Inverse folding.
C-alpha cells in the first residue's frame, strides 16, 4: 500500500480488499498459533520504547514492515485474553460473529449520535436490546414498548455512571441542587470499583458512599438488614438515600446480592435500584440460572456486559432502564447544529442523550450477528459448558487436600487457595501471592487474585471461547507443580 | 457458519478466515458502489421494526441470510458518512490503514485497562501520542517525558469531561468540596455542547456556565475583553473561576478563539485552560496552519479527534495534558482485584485512571498504522487537498450573486446561504431551511446547517476520504438547481 504523495487513495476499494484479506489471514494465523504465546505478557515496563523510533515517518512504510513489527514487537507485549489458557479477571469474549460485526461497523464507519445520523444504527440497537431483554425474561417495562428501553454503553462503568447521574438529577430536582452533599449511595463492599468512580465523577461526597461490609456468613452478599440499618441511620442524620447498587456475580467471588429483598427496601424508601450483572447476567439466558436475577422486576436499571461472556467483541455493555426520560433529562443537550425534523418531532430515539459521549459506534451490529449466527440454544450450551468446566476444576481442587475452596462456586469462577502447613494467615497470603506469581510467570496459564476477609485468594474464571477441559487440566497441573515447589522450600 | 448446537466453535481459526474474507469482500464491494446510495438515509422512523422478527432465533441462521439482511434492510437505513458526497457536520474518516487497525484490535480483543492487561497497548499509546504531539509541535510538557502525556479518549466529549473533572477536583481540594456551587466555567457560545454536558455531569451549576456571547465582529471567536469582564464580575460576586475552554475550529463555523490572549488571562487567574481542536487540530500538522494553535503553550490540555479528519476510524480522540496527576487524582480507583507488581511499584502508566470507563480497546494500533502507512507528507497533502476543495466551493458560491458566504472559510468548511429577494431575515431562514431539505432529499449530497446571529446557514464541510472536485461540483449543481426551483416559486 506504499503510495506516492501525489496519489494517496486512502479508501480505494480494491486496495481495501487486498489489505483486508491480508489482515484476515494475519488474525486467523494468530488464532492458529495462540497457544504458543505466554498468556500473560512477560515484557518489562518500557520495553516498546526501545524498539520504536521517536517520531512518525515522513514517508509511507510498507504494509509488510508494519505486519512484521506487529508480529515481532507488539505481540510479545500482548496479554492474550483470547488464549484458551486465559483464566484471569473475567473473560472478554471474541467470536467470529462478533469479529465480523466489528469489521462491518468499522467498514461503514458511521457516527450514530442521533437517529438521522444513521437510522439503522439506532433502530437495530433498540430492537436487539429488546431481543436480549426477552431472552433474559426482563419485565416488559425494561423494553422499548413503554417508558423504558435498552441502550448499548461501552462498559459497565459507563452504565452505572449514567444511571447514577439520572438518579442524582431526579432527586436534586425534588430536593434542590444544593443538597448534593446530602445524597447517599448504598452497595456492598464487594461492588465493582466502577461505582466508587461514578460517585467521584458525579460529585457524590466520598463519605456518603456506603460500601456496606460483607463476610462469609452471607457468602459476601449484601445483607438486607445491614442495608436497612444504614438507611435508617442516614435518614435520622438528615441525609438523603438515593441510589442502591446490587450485584449479581461480584468481581471478587461471584456473590449474588438478594435482589428481591433489596428491591423491596429500595422501593419502600423510593431509592433508585440498579442491578449490575456485568459478568453473570449472560448465564441468566439459561432457565436454570434465571433465578439469580429474580427480583430484577423491582429494579430501575439492569446491566450486562455482552463483551464479557456472550461472544460479543469488546466493547458492548447492555443497559436497560425503566424510565428512559430520567436518563434523557440528565444527559441531553440540543445544539442547533444537530437539530433535524425527526428529532424535533420526537418521533425517534437519539441515543446521544442516553450516554456520556456524543458520538457512538454501530455496536448493535455485532450483537445482532452473535444472536443470529449462534442462536439461543448454542449460546446456552456455551455458558453451560464453561460452568461445567469450572465445576470440573472445583472438583480437582477439592481432591487435593493442600488446597481449599474459599467461596462457593456459583457460575464459572472458582475461588481457592493453597493452605500453609501452619494456620498462619500472613504466611498463607504470602504463599498464595507467590504461587500466583509463579504460575503466571510460566506463561502457561494466567489467573488473577482477590482478597476476601483478609485472605489472599486465587481466582480461576473459565470463559475464554477456546477453553476446553484439557486447558483446565493443564492449568491445574501447573498450579500443583508450583505448589509442590513452594511447599517443598518452606 | 451454521453450526449444530453440539459443535459451536466460536473462534475456530479456519472458520474465522473464511468468514473474515467474505466480510472483507462485502465491505470492499460496499465502497465500490457507495455512490449509488442516497447519502442521507431516506427511511421513515420505525422502518426496521417492520422488517425484523420480534425475538432472537433459537437456532443459528446462515451467514448468507445475515449478509442479505444487511444489504436489504440495514444499508437503506445507513447515512453514508464515507460517501464522497457527504458534507454534513464534520467528516468521520475511514481509511484502509484505520480499518486494518480496527480489525487487528477486534481480532486481538484485549481489554487494556492497566499496563499488565497488555503492556503493548499502553506503551504504544504513549509512544504514538508523543509522535502525534511532535507532528503538531506541541510543547514538550504535553509529552510523556515529563509530568504530562497523551491518552486516547473515545470522543472529544469524554476529553473535555475528564479534564473538567481534573480541574474541578484540583480546585475543590483547595477551596473545599462544599464550594462546588461556586465554581464557574467559561467558553464562548460557539463552544461544542459537549462542554455543557460535561458541566451537567460534573455537577457544575448551570447558571455558573458562562457561554459568552460572540458575533460577526470577531468572526464568532471569544473576545478576551468579554472574558476578563465576566471573570472579574464573578470574582467580585464571590464565585470561583476554574475552567476555560477555548476552541480552534468551532462546530458551527470553524471560528478560532485567540489562544494566546486567552491563555494569558487563564494563567493570570490560575484557571485551567483546555483547548478543543477536535476538528481543526488535524490541519495543524501543516506548517502553514500551525499558527492556529499558537498559544497552546499556555494551555493545560489539548484535544484533537483523529477520527474526524485524520484517516483514523471512529473512535479515536487524542488528549494531551500537562499535569497527568491531576487527571489520575480525579479518576483513579485501586481495587484489590486489579493490583499487580508493576502498578504498585509505579513503574507503568495505567490508562484506566485517565478516563471514565475501566475497560479500553487497543485504539493506538489504528493510529499507528495511519501514521506509518501514510506518513507525514501524505497526511499533509490529504488535509491541503480538502482545504483546496473547500476554497474551490467557496469560489463557486461567491460567483453566484444569489448566494453569500456568511463566515470566513478558515479550514475546509464553507458557511453560506441563499439570499431572498427582499431583506426579510425570517424569509431568508425559511428559504435556506427548505433549500437544505430539498438538497438532502435528493440523496445526491448531504450537508447540514447552523444558526449564527439568528441567521439559518448551510454548512458544507469537505473531508470525506473519497471526495474529489467532481463531487464538490455536483453538490454545487444540486444546490443551484434546488435554489432556482425555490426562488422560481416565490
Amino acid at each position: 500500500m506504499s503510495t506516492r504523495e501525489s496519489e494517496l487513495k486512502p479508501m480505494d476499494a480494491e486496495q481495501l480488499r487486498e489489505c483486508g484479506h491480508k489482515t484476515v489471514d494475519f488474525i486467523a494465523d494468530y488464532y492458529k498459533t495462540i497457544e504458543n504465546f505466554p498468556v500473560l505478557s512477560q515484557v518489562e515496563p518500557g520495553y516498546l520504547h526501545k524498539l520504536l523510533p521517536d517520531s512518525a515517518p515522513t514517508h509511507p512504510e510498507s504494509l509488510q514492515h508494519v505486519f512484521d513489527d506487529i508480529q515481532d514487537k507488539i505481540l510479545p507485549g500482548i496479554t492474550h485474553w483470547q488464549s484458551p489458557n486465559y483464566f484471569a479477571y473475567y473473560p472478554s469474549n471474541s467470536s467470529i460473529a462478533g469479529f465480523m460485526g466489528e469489521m462491518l461497523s468499522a467498514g461503514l464507519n458511521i457516527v450514530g449520535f442521533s437517529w438521522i445520523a444513521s437510522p439503522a444504527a439506532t433502530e437495530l440497537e433498540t430492537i436487539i436490546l429488546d431481543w436480549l431483554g426477552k431472552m433474559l425474561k426482563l419485565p416488559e417495562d425494561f423494553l422499548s414498548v413503554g417508558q423504558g428501553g435498552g441502550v448499548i454503553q461501552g462498559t459497565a462503568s459507563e452504565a452505572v455512571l449514567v444511571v447514577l447521574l439520572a438518579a442524582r438529577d431526579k432527586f436534586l430536582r425534588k430536593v434542590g441542587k444544593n443538597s448534593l452533599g446530602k445524597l447517599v449511595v448504598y452497595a456492598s463492599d464487594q461492588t465493582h470499583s466502577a461505582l466508587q468512580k461514578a460517585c467521584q465523577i458525579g460529585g457524590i461526597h466520598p463519605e456518603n458512599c456506603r460500601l456496606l461490609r460483607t463476610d462469609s456468613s452471607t457468602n459476601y452478599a449484601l445483607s438486607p438488614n445491614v442495608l436497612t440499618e444504614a438507611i435508617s441511620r442516614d435518614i435520622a442524620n438528615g441525609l438523603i438515600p438515593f441510589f442502591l447498587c446490587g450485584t449479581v456475580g461480584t468481581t471478587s467471588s461471584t456473590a449474588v446480592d438478594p435482589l428481591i429483598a433489596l428491591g423491596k427496601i429500595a422501593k419502600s424508601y423510593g431509592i433508585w435500584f440498579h442491578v449490575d450483572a456485568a459478568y453473570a447476567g449472560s448465564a441468566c439466558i439459561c432457565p436454570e440460572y434465571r433465578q439469580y436475577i429474580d427480583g430484577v422486576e423491582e429494579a430501575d436499571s439492569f446491566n450486562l456486559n455482552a463483551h464479557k461472556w456472550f461472544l460479543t467483541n469488546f466493547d458492548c455493555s447492555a443497559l436497560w432502564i425503566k424510565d428512559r426520560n430520567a436518563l434523557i433529562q440528565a444527559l441531553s443537550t440540543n445544539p442547533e447544529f444537530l437539530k433535524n425534523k425527526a428529532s424535533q418531532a420526537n418521533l425517534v430515539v437519539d441515543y446521544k442523550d442516553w450516554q456520556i459521549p456524543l458520538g457512538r459506534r454501530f455496536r448493535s451490529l455485532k450483537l445482532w450477528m452473535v444472536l443470529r449466527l449462534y442462536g439461543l440454544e448454542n449460546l446456552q450450551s456455551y455458558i453451560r459448558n464453561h460452568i461445567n468446566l469450572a465445576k470440573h476444576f472445583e472438583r480437582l481442587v477439592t481432591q487435593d487436600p493442600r488446597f481449599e475452596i474459599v467461596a462457593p462456586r456459583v457460575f464459572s469462577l472458582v475461588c481457592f487457595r493453597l493452605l500453609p502447613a501452619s494456620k498462619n494467615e500472613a504466611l498463607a497470603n504470602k504463599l498464595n501471592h507467590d504461587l500466583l506469581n509463579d504460575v503466571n510467570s510460566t506463561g502457561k496459564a494466567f489467573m488473577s487474585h482477590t482478597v476476601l476477609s483478609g485472605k489472599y485468594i486465587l481466582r480461576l474464571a473459565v470463559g475464554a471461547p477456546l477453553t476446553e477441559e484439557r486447558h483446565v487440566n493443564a492449568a491445574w497441573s501447573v498450579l500443583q507443580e508450583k505448589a509442590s515447589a513452594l511447599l517443598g522450600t518452606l
In short: DSSP finds 14 helices and eleven strands in chain B. Chain B has two domains: 13-41+78-93+384-489, 111-374. The domain at 13-41+78-93+384-489 of chain B is CATH 3.90.1150.170 (Aspartate Aminotransferase, domain 1).
